[in-house]
Amino acid sequence: MGVEEERKQAEEALKKSEEKLKVIFDESPNVMMIMDYENGEILNVNQAARHILGYEKKTLLGKHFSILFPSESELTRNNLLEKLSIHGSVFESQKFVRADGSGLPTDLSTTLIPWDKGKAILATFRDVSEQIRLENQFFQAQKMEAIGVLVEGVAHDFNNLLTTIIGSSDLMIMSIGKDHNLRKNLEDIRKAGKRAASLTRQLLLFSRRQILEPKVINLNDVILDMDKMLRRLIGENIDLETVLAPDLGRVEADPGQIEQIIMNLAVNAKDAMPRGGKLTINTANVELDEAYVHSHADVTPGPYVMMAISDTGTGMDEETLSKVFDPFFTTKEAGKGTGLGLSTIYGIVKQSGGNIWVYSEPGKGATFKIYLPRVEKKTGGTEAVEAAAESLTGSETILVVEDNEMVRDLAQTIFQHYGYRVLTAQDGEEAIRVSQEHDGPIDLMLTDVVMPGMSGNEVVKRLNTLRPEMKVLYMSGYTNNAIVHHGDMDRETALIQKPFTMESLVCKVKEVISKIEY
């Protein structure tokens, strides 16, 4: 082989090698940039610069590399060269500026390479915005979990105090006449205690740890209790108007779930009105007739309570409306929503025997109408407490196991008031001893779940062999998640959540005692 032929082959091999390197350079998913060692000018960039940064290649060539960094960046040619001279290569987190002015977090790698007759700087950087988003999401989840645990502990102590306040006021109201001069004060104490219990539920609502218990409620009361919280939630640039129907009928639903519905829809409305607007909550008694049922699937005719939540926001088009209740569907940008809010609301409404419909057009806001079946039962109040006195009496023997002395004494007083025989214990060890020493039957044990020493569930397991016929009712100021986790309990276990009223406690006891076990 002659010298000329060898030279041609070498040139051909070099050309192919350069072409391969060019393909690798241009097709890399990460931005690659070559900068002049002497003056910092950009000599070459790959296609990813256009895809990731939004710059055309010709826009960058010949420019100083500092145009890609925010003005506050500490990365200059001099300190970059200083780092390269010491380490040879530099790896660091660096923020770039896209062509549209937005920031882009990256992992930047720089190294010195031979270039023509001198040296150049090869910079490679990887977009880490998705990684940072996921990390922030993880940290946010950890923060919310920590807040939830903190709220849970506060709620436990708070609920023990409220149990005593509400229960004692119930007892005093029953012991005095309707015309007694202290009756109004006692009713105010009871009402304040129940409002405080509502605040506890709202705290737990943010951490999604509330107990779910259907009750006969007035939606107007729930909305009024949430008024201040909703105003803080939506901000000062959004007006809140409530138009509540007088003599509104009752519905049977979980107050915590209703609060969750209202809060989620308020948050969605806020997001749809970034420049401000108006949020309106209406309630009304309605009759859904055959004509309405004919045009709305899965609706049963009859009396309903309607709650409408409307905003003056951006609205939705037909395609969005068709998917609005689908799980994981969201119109919010990545990281700003799970897409579970409206599907959760839909599930809550359906489980409560109701229906939900949404009406919206682009630019004309949105209205969510929720229909819940009207019930004839009355909500719990002073009159209900007094009216229930005779029907709740009993003669069974109840063992109360509670480490909080005030709650234990209150439960004993309530049960004795209704004719029950009562045994008490401050912890699991004493409960076992009392059970062993008592000659007669023990029809029911009311026990706290989380106590020093033995948990309520451990006490039950120990006593099952001694008294297999004994029914069990758990009580707790903790949330359902904590109860199940701590006590290794089944979610179907009979449980009453603190704070409870005198009536609700005795009603629950009678329900558990009368339940037939198969």
Spell out the blueprint of helices and strands.
Layout: H1 3-27, E1 31-36, E2 42-45, H2 48-53, H3 57-60, H4 77-87, E3 89-97, E4 103-115, E5 118-127, H5 129-175, H6 183-206, E6 215-217, H7 219-234, E7 238-243, E8 250-253, H8 255-272, E9 277-288, H9 290-295, E10 302-311, H10 318-323, H11 341-351, E11 355-360, E12 366-375, H12 382-387, E13 397-401, H13 405-417, E14 421-425, H14 428-437, E15 444-448, H15 456-466, E16 471-476, H16 480-487, E17 495-497, H17 502-514
Parallel strand pairs: 7-9, 13-14, 13-15, 15-16, 16-17
Antiparallel strand pairs: 1-2, 1-5, 3-4, 4-5, 6-8, 8-12, 9-10, 10-12, 11-12
Helix pairs in contact: 5-6, 5-13, 7-8, 8-11, 14-15
Walk me through what this model shows.
The chain has 518 residues and is an alpha/beta fold. It has three domains: 25-127, 2-Layer Sandwich (Beta-Lactamase), CATH 3.30.450; 219-378, Heat Shock Protein 90, CATH 3.30.565; 382-514, 3-Layer(aba) Sandwich (Rossmann fold). It is 45% helix and 23% strand. It contains 17 helices and 17 strands. Strands 6, 7, 8, 9, 10, 11 and 12 form a seven-stranded mixed sheet that branches. The longest helix is centred in the first third of the chain and has 47 residues, at 129-175. The radius of gyration is 34 Å and the shape is elongated. The N and C termini lie far apart (99 Å).
Q: What distinguishing features does this structure have?
A:
Rossmann fold, five-stranded antiparallel sheet, 518 residues, alpha/beta, 17 strands, 23% strand, seven-stranded mixed sheet, Beta-Lactamase, single chain, Heat Shock Protein 90, 17 helices
